[in-house]
Amino acid sequence: MNTTVATTGTEGKTWGGGNDPLKASYGKMMMWFFIVSDALTFSAFLAAYGFSRFKFIESWPIADEVFTHVPFFHGNYPMIYVAFMTFILIMSSVTMVLAVDAGHHLNKKKVTWYMFLTVIGGVIFVGSQAWEWNTFIKGEYGAIQTNGGNILQFGEYKTVEGEQKFERVAIADFAKASHTERTQHESKSGLWFVSEGTLPEYSIDEVYKGLVANENILIRNQIINEHGHKTVLSREESLKQLKSDGKAVIHGANLKVNEYGSPLFADFFFFITGFHGFHVLSGVVLNIIVFFNVIIGTYERRKSYEMVEKVGLYWHFVDLVWVFVFTFFYLV
Amino acid sequence: MAHEHKLEIFRGLWKFKSNTQKIWGVLAFLTFVTAVEVVLGIYKPEMFMGKVLGMKALNWIFIILTIVKAYYITWDFMHMRDEVKALRRMVIWTAVFLICYLVFILLQEGGYIEGVYSNGFVKRDF
């Protein structure tokens, strides 16, 4: 009966089993493999963003003009808020790795504190992202969408410190509100199965009248010129374009329209930061579970804090992805 | 439980006494890199506006700095530095190869479509 598999003659040899060549536990290795596949998902999204951007390279929105707000402050501060968000996430990555380190020393009190701080960091980040979304959806100046799906924005030249600078003007500041016959359709006053979204505050006609009345206001289109700025049209060209091409007045951004430029920019922004935000959220939930497990002493009894390490890997990965999202949405 | 950590970064240029110290050191470095990125992003120095390999030099700087940051997050926060070579290569090479392939193929296609648009086969300015 020596031919059965009971003895193969390979015991103690490389392929005899019982080896762990990667020197990592099953759980940790599976976390790494999950991270690899998730990294591929994220890079597919970012590469798709790059695809659309290359496709419309001459008219893509300039991030510095889109994300300029900081809570509690008025004015134009590009980059500042998102840099703060990045720092918060890196910071919570640090507290996480400190928690892992304290876990190696079986220091329950320290692990508890560091896990707590990590959760707080995650919550601040998700909150900031919600604020960022809200500002983006609300919009600022409003714009005109043309028949071809392009965006026309308004502004005027102002002299700032001896330099001519093009500054944006909100539609609400110059459009001439007039009496209109058009009222919003409600299901109680007509076809009950047809509904209509809120009407825009102004009609194209009102904006046109406002533009005619304000002689210093010009239109800026999406095309990026050789100086890296959007092209500003002449006065005659402005009036002509608005008259012939204007289709709808839009304010803010959603999945269909985007006052800052290509709707694809908004779509990708919502999708990628949304997917990342969802990862952060689930990371926070995992961290909270681990946090309570630390408190009730699950890992203390197990004499191993490896679970903190595994969730930590996931948390650092979320930070890693954000570093790339930050670069490709806000910097490049 | 004795966990060994390699306590030096920048190929031994910066050595640390304990793992905790190394973590703070890496944080300092990452914060510094992010600060550089933000300052460059706000001021956009004229000298980096020239094109290198079809893209602004500034954008190349941003991408390289991002990869540097990603390296230190993976190596020191995720302890890739302390894993065995086989695990490290399995994870990194797989991801790097597939991502490079994907990025190349999509950007190439995007650039091609841009060419079709701008050569006048598709009208968009109405």
CATH fold-type name of the largest domain in chain A: Four Helix Bundle (Hemerythrin (Met), subunit A)
| Termini Cα gap of chain B | 69 Å
The name of the CATH superfamily of the largest domain in chain A reads Cytochrome c oxidase, subunit III, four-helix bundle
Measure the end-to-end span of chain A: 69 Å
Outline of chain A: elongated
> Which pair of chains has the greatest number of interface residues, and how are they split between the two chains?
A-B, 63 and 54 residues
Taking pLDDT < 50 over at least 5 consecutive residues as the criterion, the unreliable ranges of chain A are none
What does this structure look like?
The complex is a heterodimer of chains A (about 325) and B (about 130). Chain A has about 325 residues and is of the alpha+beta class. Chain A folds into two domains: about 25-140 and about 265-330, Up-down Bundle (Four Helix Bundle (Hemerythrin (Met), subunit A)), CATH 1.20.120.80; about 145-175 and about 200-250, no CATH class. Helices cover about 55% and strands about 10% of the residues of chain A. Chain A is built from ten helices and six strands; from the N terminus they run ααααβββααββαβααα. Chain A has helices spanning about 25-55, 65, 80-105, 110-140, 170-175, 205-215, 235-245, 265-295, 300, 305-330, and strands spanning about 145, 150-160, 165-170, 215-225, 230, 245-250. The longest helix of chain A is centred in the last third of the chain and has 33 residues, at about 265-295. The termini of chain A are far apart. Chain B has two domains: about 1-80; about 85-125. Helix content of chain B is about 65%, strand content about 5%. Chain B is built from three helices and four strands; from the N terminus they run E-E-H-E-E-H-H. Chain B starts with 7 loop residues before the first strand and ends in a 5-residue tail after the last helix. Chains A and B meet through helix 1, helix 3 and helix 10 of A and helix 1, helix 2 and helix 3 of B.
